[in-house]
Amino acid sequence: MLAAVCHATGEALRIEEVRLRPPGPGEVQVEVHSVAICHSDIGYLDGIWASQRPAVYGHEAAGRITALGAGVTGLAPGDAVVVTMIRSCGQCRPCRTGKPFLCAAPHDRCDGRLSLPDGTPVEQGLSTAAFAESCVVHASQVARVDPVEQLMTSTRSPSSCPIFTASMASAIQSCTVASPMAGPERPWPARRV
Ligand SMILES: [Zn+2]
Ligand SMILES: [Zn+2]
After folding, report:
1. Closest-approaching ligand to the CA atom of 36
2. Please, which residues bridge with residue 176 across strands?
3. Which of 23-27, 30-34, 113-117, 177-181 shows the lowest mean pLDDT across its residues?
4. Ligand 1 centre and the CA of 58: distance in Å?
């Protein structure tokens, strides 16, 4: 498949062929229909945060599930979903106490799910790597969108980031979240959570 690969800070992303392994236990594969560029992605591209290279970033995606790994329930191929970078194991203390966004389970972003054709490992940037035709993520990183047709394909991908941002904020204190979807032709205005 094709992906936008970052090889070095300051260099343009290269659209090139990468290998994506099939989903393992607890994972899903999502065909990416749209993906936003968040400032977090730019931070990694600029080298503000540590990352191994080559890497594929992108963590605000929307698309359809194309494959399920073993043990995944409640999702099916064809489901329309948004994808976020938040992984939740469901077992650790934060996950069991209502703070899945603080999941303490380790995750190796260079576990071999992505690689260049010559076998060079590619980092799964922000645990998602959605600047690509497809991504393989933990099932906890997707949320089914129903009915998806009410949301424009071009605008639903950014909704994944504000939604979990609002989730985190609501666990800490009340705040106002301005969704990038707000606007004359966009259905979700800024709201207090
Ligand atoms: Zn984001
Ligand atoms: Zn956890």
Report:
1. 1
2. 192
3. 177-181
4. 8
Q: Which ligand is nearest to the CA of 83?
A: 1
pLDDT reported for residue 187? 39
Q: How remote is the C-alpha of 27 from its chain's centroid?
A: 13
Per-residue model confidence (pLDDT) at position 174? 40
Q: CB burial class (10 A; 0-12, 13-18, 19+) of residue 54?
A: buried
CA of 118 relative to ligand 1 center, distance in Å: 31
Question: Can you give the residue ranges of every domain in the chain?
Answer: 2-192
Q: How far is the CA of 27 from the centre of ligand 2 (A)?
A: 15
Q: What is the pLDDT of residue 188?
A: 41
pLDDT value of residue 156: 56
Tell how far the Cα of 88 is from the centroid of ligand 2, in angstroms: 5
Say whether domain 2-192 belongs to CATH 3.40.640.10: no
Q: Report the mean per-residue pLDDT for the chain.
A: 83
Characterize 102-128 residue by residue with b for buried, 16 or more Cβ atoms within 10 angstroms of its Cβ, and e for exposed. ebeeeeebeeebbbbeeeebbbbbbbb
Which ligand is closest to the CA of 87, given by its number? Answer: 2
